[in-house]
Design a protein that fits this description.
By secondary structure, the protein is mainly beta. The chain has 3 domains: about 160 residues, Sandwich (Jelly Rolls); about 120 residues, Sandwich (Jelly Rolls); about 100 residues, Jelly Rolls (Sandwich), CATH 2.60.120. It is about 0% helix and about 50% strand. Strands 4, 5, 6, 8, 11 and 13 form a 6-stranded antiparallel sheet that branches. A 5-stranded antiparallel sheet has the order 3-7-12-9-10, with no helix packed on it. The longest helix has 5 residues. The radius of gyration is 23 Å and the shape is globular.
């Protein structure tokens, strides 16, 4: 199996046809990709700021909205919670106008942007990354989650004058229940999954094992790594079995919330008593403990909390996380390559779509929104691949476009999720 470029790639690989673990595991059997880190253009979550500059378009920034006929702005709550992590008020800006622009600088941890309107109309538009979304939630009842590493401008635009925007910074002193400390904690509960085993190595420890306690079924793995020099690789496999499940060079720059859904990797069929192994190699040979002083490895396994919906041989989790929010599976639509699935996004609620495609031969496909194709996915068939989530607006048509021989696709699936938290 070729080396991957980073732990982000390593986390993104899964073995769709792994079978039970009593079979020999080899790199050649890793054939599919689930939840890979691909750049989707459609209103993906944006980035976070260590410091942000708020500018109000065309008006002065004021601390309160004057005028006896204008209601006072709602008070922002001191804290907000997203996916188990706590965020505290960083600063609040109010304007008599209808727009506030936040210029956001990159940082290593997330923050939230929330808002309130002073009039009866609570509709707002949120613009970032050249895309626009809408919200009609009550004051401070919705937010934009800004993940690590992104920079740019977030604009909040009200339907009428009078707007308040509050930025929330991650409270590093508070961690969710789980294994680890601070921002690198493997959470006990990830939407749709529960922690079945996790551990962090000591500084300089180049190999460790993680026992897994779970009923038979799908496991998803999450890993983190710090301090790995160039020329070294991190491998993950099963204790007592030859080969490895995946291998990657380099450590992820983002170590925040390593067990979160965006970084869950492998999915396969496992038996109780499975033990996982993570180790470091150089030129294919294991590295001894203490050879890399700054090295720190972490590995976790998550089991599905609820029975999945299995379609086309793939287990769709009933609940997923995306953009700092929780989404529940509403329905799936399937079809062969000659009759590819299509769906219309419901008028009510916020929705995202994931996909799964099984192909007999090498195939390239893309999710399309109202006929406009998103970034392409390449399958080195015969194999399967999945992607998303991709956000879609009410009433939009979502489909799959195959480049080449559509008959090569045995079965394709679109899964529609609705926001529930």
């Amino acid at each position: 199996m070729p080396d991957l470029h980073s732990l982000h790639d390593l986390r993104a690989t899964l073995d769709h046809r792994a079978g039970d673990v009593h079979d020999e595991v080899s790199p050649a059997r890793v054939a599919a990709v689930e939840g890979r880190a691909r750049a989707v253009r459609r209103r993906r979550a944006a980035g976070v700021a260590a410091a942000a500059v708020l500018a109000v378009a065309g008006v002065a920034v004021v601390s309160a909205l004057p005028g006896p006929d204008r209601p006072e702005p709602a008070s922002a709550p001191d804290t907000m919670t997203a996916l188990g992590w706590t965020y505290r008020v960083d600063h609040t800006t109010a304007t008599e106008g209808d727009r506030i622009d936040a210029d956001v600088l990159p940082s290593d941890v997330p923050q939230l942007v929330s808002w309130a309107t002073t009039g009866d109309d609570q509709d707002v538009r949120i613009r970032m990354n050249g895309e626009e979304s809408r919200s009609d939630a009550s004051d401070f009842g919705d937010f934009v989650w800004l993940p690590p590493g992104w920079s740019g401008q977030v604009s909040v635009i009200g339907a009428e004058p009078g707007l308040t925007v509050t930025q929330y910074a991650l409270d590093r002193s508070v961690s969710p229940e789980g294994v680890g400390e601070g921002v690198t904690t493997f959470r006990e509960d990830v939407a749709g999954r529960t922690l079945a085993g996790a551990a962090f190595g000591e500084a300089g420890q180049a190999e460790m094992e993680v026992p897994v306690t779970a009923e038979p079924g799908e496991l998803a793995l999450a890993h983190t790594c710090e301090g790995l020099p160039l020329g070294y690789q991190v491998r993950v496999g099963l204790v007592g079995r030859p080969g490895y499940l995946s291998s990657g060079s380099g450590c992820a720059e983002d170590t925040f919330d390593p067990g979160g859904s965006p970084v869950l990797g492998f999915a396969g069929r496992w038996r109780p008593g499975t033990a996982l192994r993570i180790w470091v190699v150089r030129h294919g040979e294991p590295v001894a403990d203490g050879e890399i002083d700054e090295l720190r490895l972490g590995l976790a396994a998550y089991a599905l909390a609820d029975d999945p919906r299995t379609v086309a041989g793939h287990d769709f989790a009933r609940v997923i996380e995306h953009a700092g929010k929780v989404w529940r599976l509403e329905r799936t639509v399937t079809g062969p390559g000659t009759d590819l699935p299509r769906l219309t996004v419901p008028a009510a609620g916020d929705h995202v779509v994931t996909d799964w495609v099984v192909a007999r031969t090498r195939t390239t496909y893309a999710v399309s929104i109202d006929g406009v194709s998103e970034e392409q996915t390449w399958i080195s068939g015969p194999a399967a691949s999945g992607g998303g989530p991709v956000e879609a607006d009410p009433g939009q048509q979502v489909g799959l476009d195959v480049q080449g021989d559509e008959a090569a696709v045995e079965e394709a699936v679109l899964a529609l999720y609705r926001r529930v938290g």
